[in-house]
Amino acid sequence: MRKPREAEAFREYERVLRYRKSEHVIWEQLGNLAQVAFVFPNSYEVASSSLAWSWVQQLLWREGVGVERFFYEPWFKKFYSMESQRPIDEFPIWMFTFQFENDLLNIANLLIRKKIPLRASDREEFHPIIFIGGPVTLFNPRIVSEIADVVYVGDFECAVSRVAAVIKEFQRIGRTNVIEELAKLDQVLSKVAGKESFKSCISPLEDVPVAHYTTPYSVFKNKLLIEVGRGCIRRCAFCVTGYTKKPVKFANVNRVREVLLKHRDREFGLISATITDYPYLDELLETIESEGIKFSVSSLRVDGVTERLLKLLKETEHYSFTIAPEGISQKMRDVMLKDLNTAEILSGLKLARDVGFYNVKMYFIIGLEEETEDDYRELFDLLSETLRMGYRRITLSVNPLVPKPCTPFYERSMISKKEYEERLKYIKKNVPKDVLLEAESYKECYLQYQISKLKDEETLEFLKEHLDKTER
Ligand code: SF4
């Protein structure tokens, strides 16, 4: 595509190109004029840290569908694709992966900026088809039921061949017929096509999802992402993963090994709800150890760490590791169904210290009605004990409970801003020095809480209030 001449569009174009040039691409399938714009409605850094942004594109490529990636920046106006830098207006089908509740605002902003009516039933034949799927639609598809022409619920692998077959007919049958054909799929909710019933589907994970590129901008800096597990065997009461992605699926260890060996010159990011629950972890670590492969993990449970895992992680991660005890005391972990005790936390921390980690980041959730001062005292004791082990820095990351649909905490309400700030002040005053407190923004968490519960028309009402007035 010819470079834009207008200053702002040129800046936007250059930004997209800069990210594109940062990518080390392993394979891709360009060529035909792509029909599908695959949008991750967040920044490039967030998008490229998600395997989904690559994997869905690969699944469509395999089916012979031309698809290009897009990401979102609040100042973008044209929205150029990563692959060819074509503007999004040229694509007749816009597929969004809805990974985080707050991205709803970005989806809506993008539509408004491109003059697409927010309400699906107000769109006409010349508008793009708005197709929305992803983890948020799995636990509450009705958030976007009025906005999307097609809401897809569940893993994309389940129906990608059928979705692709319909999309490929777009030029011949046109927008309305494509929506009607997609609405025939079990996994699809489409109000504009009069289809309100749907059945979600979880894929058996027969393939091992592997990203097709790496980039230094990802949270997993230059690492090749590979998914080893989907869903979680645990049922923590605040977490949708344990309640929506059922049954849990694990990738075949031999296939994972093949990928590691094939790309052994690269570093890997192993993606799963908790790597320590992967049943074939020991076999995998054997290959990693014998081949000298470097890797990091998206998440681990402190009660599952072993000396071998920590030693291997340390070769890549050097000094820091992250754990999520979540509950500030044993009582609170029990309330949260966290299934983790203080002795297990301390023993994991000790092991990590012994293999040479100096810094640890710990995640906690506060703001439940059962909390008392005693619980906070237990947190401070845990931090002091951790420092006594010889850790140089502890990052204490705190966020308020956000009660989510599909979880046992759904009926709870969220703590008030005032109360949250008071509890943070109390923590700050009492944590041992050398502990760095990082608190999640109440505003962002409350937004997440509100959006996660929205249904149908409520979403449009909500957006009317929350979108930047100048955008509407
Ligand atoms: S918090 Fe972690 S361990 Fe608990 S259900 Fe969610 S993913 Fe699983």
UniProtKB/TrEMBL annotation:
One of its GO terms (molecular function) is iron-sulfur cluster binding. Coiled coil: none annotated. The lineage of its organism: Bacteria, Thermotogati, Thermotogota, Thermotogae, Thermotogales. This is Radical SAM protein. SUPFAM superfamilies: Radical SAM enzymes (SSF102114). It comes from Fervidobacterium thailandense. Residues 218-443 form the Radical SAM core domain. It comes from the Bacteria.
